[in-house]
From TrEMBL:
Protein name: Zn(2)-C6 fungal-type domain-containing protein
GO molecular function, one term: RNA polymerase II cis-regulatory region sequence-specific DNA binding
UniProt entry tagged with the keyword Nucleotide-binding: no
Keywords tagged on the record: DNA-binding, Metal-binding, Nucleus, Transcription, Transcription regulation, Zinc
Lineage: Eukaryota, Fungi, Dikarya, Ascomycota, Pezizomycotina
Length: 755
C-alpha cells in the first residue's frame, strides 16, 4: 500500500494529567491533594481533577474512562464518596450520574460519549461532596453547656441552642441567654449549696406553679359550647377582639360574624356548634384585655381546650371548611394569649398550613371554579393571615419558615372594607389605595413580608449560609421597605378615617423586631469587637424603641424610682386601658416575647457599658436604659399578678438590677455578690406570696380549695429533691455537634415569596 494513502496517526504523547484543572491552567506545580494546596491558598471554591484523557480525535467527542491514576485516584474516591467512576462499566451502568452513550461502530469497551447534562450533574455532585468533605475536616466549634435552673440547662452552639428535647434557631430568644453567663453561674453555684435560701424558696415557687397549672386544667369536658357569659360581658370580650387582633390578622368577615352573633342571642338553641366554638375563641382572645389582671383566664383556658377537642373529634373532613380554617387560626392566637401550650403553636400552624393547601387556598380564586366576590376575598385574606402566622410562629420557635417561591399564586387581598365585599358591582373605583380601609393595616404589613421572610430564612437556615455582608445587604433592603411603611402609616393621618394607636404601634413593633433579630447574631461579637459595633447599636436601639412602643409611659418614669425597692409594697403597672400594653402583660408566647426580649437586651447593654466605664468615679448609666430596667421590675410583677406562673424573668431581672445598683454604688469584686443575692431572695418571697394568692383565689373557690385546706407542707421539698430534679433535667439534653456550615453567597431576597 502506498505510504501516501495511509491515514496520519497523531504522534503526540497522551500522558495522564496528574495536576488539577486550575493548576494546569495556571502552569504551577500541584501537590495532588484534594483539594490541592494551590487552590486552598487562592481560595478556589472547587478543585477538580480530570478523570480521563481523550485517546482519539477531539472532534469525535470520544473520551476514555480508563483509570490513569491507580492508587492515588482510588484514595481520592474513598475520600469524596462515589463521585468518579472506577471504570467504564460503572459509568455505563450509572445512568443517573453520567448517562453515557456508545459511539456507533466502536469496538473499544473503554470508549464512551458523555452528554452535557451528565457532565453538569457530575460536576455539581462533585462540588457538593467537596464542600461537605472540606467542612467535615474543619474542627467544629465547641458546644458550650450552661447548667442553670434559669437557663434550663442549655447547650449553646454557634448558631442555635438545644434545651431538653427542642432545638432553637438563631431567632429564638434563648440564644441571648448565653451573654449572661456569669449571672447564670451564680445561680448554678447556689443550687449546689444545701443551705441556700434562694434555691429553697425557688423550689417552693416551682411546686406552687405546678399546682396552679393543675387547677386551671378544665379536665374532661362533657358538652362543648355551653360556657357562655352574660350578654354584657360577652359584648366587651367580642369588642376587645374586633378592635385589636382582627384589625391586623384578618380572620372574620365582621358584618357576617355580627349578624350570626345577634342571631345567637335571639335564639341560642339554634346556633351551630362550629359558630359556638368560633365565638368562644373570639371571647378567649378578648379576655386578655378585659382587665389588667386577666380575671377571666380560667374561662379562656376552657374555651381554648374545647376548641382543641372539637378539632380532634371526627369526622376530620368536616373541619375542612372556611369556618374550620377560621377556628384553627383563632385557636393559634388564643393558645398564645391564654397560655395553653403557647410555645408549641408552630406545630399547630404546620397543620393549619397544610389544611389550607388541601383546600386550595394557595391557588388564586381566579384559577378555581367561579365563586362570589365575598368568598374569593375571604380566601385571599385567610391565606394572607396564615402566611403571617407561619412566619411569626417560626420566628418565635427558632425554626426555618416552610414557605418557598412555589407555594402560592394567590394575589393580595383587595384594599376594601368588609361592607364593600357584600356588593359585586363596581368595586374597582373604591380600591384606590388612597383611603384607609379595614384591610389597610394587613396590607401594609404584607408589603414588608418578603424582606422579613428573607431575614428569618437566613437566620434559621441549617447550615447557616449567611455572612456579615449578607446581613448588611438585607439591612439596606429592609430599611428601604421600613421607611416606605412608616411613610404610609403617617400618610393616613391626613385622611378622614385613621388607624388607631394599637394598629400603628403593632406594625412598627413587628418591623423593628425583625431588624433587631437580623443583627442579634452579631451582638455578642459587637460587645468585644468594634468591627461589629453597628450591629450592637442597631440591636440596642431597636430594643429600646420596641419597649417604648409597648409601654409609652417608660419615657416619663421618675429617676428617683429605686432599682431595688426597699419597702414591702409591691409595685405593679397600670395600663390605663391601653390594649397593646395589656397584651404584653397578660398574654404569653409571642406577646410576652415582645417585651421580655427587648428588656433583656437593654439590661445587657446597660450592664456592659457600666463595666466598660473607665472613669475614676462610679459609672454613669444611660438614662433610657436605666428607665427600662426600672420599668421591667413592676412589669414582671404585673405578669405574675395577672396569672403568670414562671418566676424566672422576675428573679433574673431583679438580680441584674442588684448588680447594676452595686456598680452604681462603686462596689467591686466579691462585694457585689451580697446585694445581688439579697435582691433575688426578696423577689422570690414576693413571687411565692403572689403564687399563693393565685392558688387560693376566688376563681378556684368553687373547687373547695382554701388556705386552710391546702397542704403547704407538701410544697416544702428538700434540697436533695431539688438537686435530683436538676440532674434529671440536665441528662435529658442531647449532645449535638456544631451546626455551623461553610459560608457561601446566597441571595435570600430572590428566594422569598413573590409579593
Amino acid at each position: 500500500m502506498d505510504e501516501t494513502l495511509r491515514p496520519k496517526i497523531d504522534q503526540r504523547r497522551r500522558r495522564p494529567a496528574f495536576a488539577c484543572v486550575s493548576c494546569r491552567k495556571s502552569k504551577i506545580r500541584c501537590d495532588r491533594k484534594q483539594p490541592c494546596g494551590a487552590c486552598v491558598r487562592s481560595r478556589h471554591k472547587t478543585c477538580v481533577f480530570e478523570t480521563s484523557r481523550c485517546p482519539t480525535s477531539r472532534r469525535s467527542g470520544i473520551a476514555s474512562t480508563a483509570d490513569p491514576y491507580g492508587t492515588a485516584e482510588t484514595e481520592r474516591r474513598s475520600d469524596l464518596g462515589p463521585v468518579t467512576p472506577a471504570s467504564s462499566t460503572a459509568v455505563a451502568n450509572d445512568h443517573s450520574r453520567v448517562s453515557p452513550l456508545r459511539e456507533p461502530g466502536s469496538t473499544n469497551s473503554d470508549v464512551t460519549i458523555l452528554d452535557a447534562d451528565g457532565v453538569l450533574k457530575r460536576l455539581f455532585h462533585l462540588e457538593r461532596r467537596l464542600n461537605e468533605s472540606t467542612a467535615a475536616r474543619e474542627p467544629p466549634e465547641r458546644s458550650e453547656v450552661i447548667e442553670s435552673y434559669l437557663a434550663a440547662d442549655i447547650h449553646a452552639m454557634s448558631r442555635g441552642v438545644v434545651s431538653k428535647t427542642r432545638y432553637f434557631g438563631q431567632s429564638h430568644w434563648m440564644n441571648g441567654i448565653i451573654h449572661f453567663k456569669p449571672m447564670l453561674e451564680l445561680f448554678q453555684h447556689q443550687s449546689k449549696d444545701a443551705k441556700s435560701e434562694a434555691m429553697a424558696v425557688l423550689t417552693r415557687c416551682k411546686a406552687l406553679a405546678r399546682s396552679i397549672k393543675a387547677q386551671r386544667n378544665p379536665g374532661i369536658i362533657g358538652k362543648l359550647g355551653t360556657n357562655i357569659p352574660p350578654r354584657d360581658v360577652a359584648d366587651k370580650l367580642v369588642d376587645g377582639y374586633l378592635r385589636t387582633t382582627e384589625t391586623v390578622f384578618r380572620v372574620l368577615h365582621v358584618p357576617s360574624f355580627k349578624r350570626d352573633y345577634e342571631q345567637y342571642w335571639a335564639a341560642p338553641d339554634t346556633a351551630g356548634l362550629p359558630f359556638m366554638i368560633q365565638l368562644q375563641l373570639v371571647m378567649a382572645i378578648g379576655c386578655t384585655i378585659y382587665d389588667d389582671y386577666f380575671s377571666m383566664r380560667k374561662s379562656a383556658v376552657q374555651w381554648v381546650t374545647e376548641a382543641q377537642y372539637w378539632l380532634l373529634a371526627p369526622p376530620a373532613k368536616g373541619k375542612l371548611t372556611i369556618i374550620g380554617l377560621q377556628i384553627m387560626i383563632l385557636l393559634t392566637i388564643a393558645r398564645e394569649t391564654a397560655s395553653v401550650g403557647g410555645d408549641l403553636v408552630w406545630i399547630h400552624v404546620g397543620s393549619l398550613l397544610r389544611s389550607a393547601f388541601y383546600m386550595g387556598l394557595h391557588r388564586d380564586p381566579s384559577q378555581l371554579p367561579r365563586m362570589s366576590r365575598l368568598d374569593a376575598e375571604i380566601r385571599r385574606r385567610l391565606w394572607n393571615t396564615i402566611l403571617e402566622l407561619e412566619l411569626k410562629t417560626s420566628v418565635d420557635s427558632g425554626g426555618f419558615p416552610t414557605i418557598s417561591t412555589e407555594t402560592s399564586d394567590t394575589r393580595a387581598p383587595a384594599d376594601l372594607d368588609d361592607t364593600d365585599l357584600m356588593k359585586d358591582d363596581e368595586l374597582k373605583n373604591k380600591e384606590s389605595g388612597k383611603r384607609f380601609t379595614d384591610m389597610s393595616i394587613a396590607l401594609a404589613l404584607r408589603e414588608s413580608f418578603r424582606e422579613r421572610l428573607a431575614i428569618y430564612q437566613m437566620l434559621n437556615a441549617t447550615p447557616f449560609r449567611g455572612t456579615y455582608d449578607d446581613t448588611i445587604q438585607l439591612h439596606r433592603r429592609f430599611m428601604t421597605t421600613f421607611k416606605a411603611l412608616m411613610n404610609k402609616l403617617k400618610g393616613y393621618a391626613s385622611l378622614g378615617r385613621q388607624p388607631i394607636s394599637f394598629q400603628c404601634r403593632f406594625v412598627e413593633v413587628m418591623a423593628r423586631r425583625c431588624l433587631m433579630s437580623l443583627h442579634l447574631p452579631y451582638l455578642g461579637p459587637g460587645l468585644k469587637d468594634p468591627a461589629f459595633s453597628f450591629s450592637r447599636k442597631e440591636v440596642t436601639e431597636s430594643a429600646i424603641k420596641i419597649y417604648c412602643l409597648l409601654f409609652p409611659s417608660v419615657s416619663s418614669l421618675s429617676s428617683s424610682f429605686p432599682l431595688v425597692a426597699g419597702g414591702d409594697d409591691l409595685e405593679v403597672l397600670s395600663t390605663e386601658g391601653d390594649d397593646l400594653s395589656r397584651f404584653a402583660i397578660c398574654a404569653s408566647g409571642f406577646w410576652r416575647l415582645l417585651a421580655s426580649q427587648p428588656s433583656m437586651i437593654a439590661m445587657l447593654e446597660l450592664q456592659t457599658t457600666m463595666q466598660e466605664d473607665d472613669s475614676l468615679g462610679p459609672p454613669t448609666p444611660r438614662p433610657d436604659l436605666l428607665n427600662i430596667l426600672r420599668h421591667s421590675l413592676p412589669y414582671y410583677a404585673s405578669r405574675i399578678k395577672a396569672g403568670e406562673t414562671n418566676v424566672k424573668g422576675y428573679l433574673f431581672t431583679t438580680a441584674l438590677a442588684g448588680h447594676v445598683q452595686a456598680l452604681m454604688d462603686g462596689l467591686t469584686g466579691p462585694k457585689i455578690m451580697e446585694p445581688v443575692l439579697s435582691a433575688a431572695i426578696k423577689t422570690e418571697r414576693i413571687c411565692f406570696d403572689l403564687l399563693k394568692q393565685q392558688l387560693v383565689s376566688t376563681e378556684y373557690a368553687d373547687a373547695g380549695t382554701s388556705d386552710a385546706q391546702f397542704d403547704w407542707d407538701s410544697l416544702m421539698t428538700t434540697n436533695e429533691e431539688w438537686e435530683n430534679s436538676m440532674m434529671g433535667s440536665f441528662f435529658e439534653v442531647s449532645s449535638v455537634n456544631n451546626f455551623l456550615g461553610p459560608n457561601g453567597g446566597f441571595d435570600f431576597i430572590s428566594s422569598s415569596m413573590p409579593f
